[in-house]
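Bench notes, afternoon.
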Amino acid sequence: MTTNLFEDPRITAIGLFYEVYSGLTGRFAVQLEKHALSAVEFEVLMRLARSPGRQLRMTDLSAQTSLSTSGVTRVVDRLERAELVHRRACPNDRRSSYAVITNSGLARLEAALPDHLSLIEDLFTGQLDAEQLDHLLQALRIIRDAVNPCATAGSQPLAVTSEA
């Protein structure tokens, strides 16, 4: 063998990515637990809070997270019992429903965010200068769109067209 595949920089890149992801998610889980949220509950609430109308169709929420449609249903069920989210029927499609963040859900996020942002700054963004962070964000968006082209589904308001 003329090349050592074990030393391939692609293996190093994905290995470093896994190490960073694992380290961050472990630290985030501990921090979020202090606010009575799991990492996946936080992700769902954050996706809803950042979406137009603070809502997403359940299928779009699944596409934006690492959850299956049944996984989203289970998380939304839990959040709904905690009164952090409620469901709303889709007016155009009886098979669809929206998950909508409640004021209580927004308040829980607002309580968790200062600590969360501080941890992100300490362990992630604060390790990079502005140019490095900009390049990282560009690269992550390119990779995200390649591996999960539906990740932004429902995040843009639908265009309103009128017939003249």
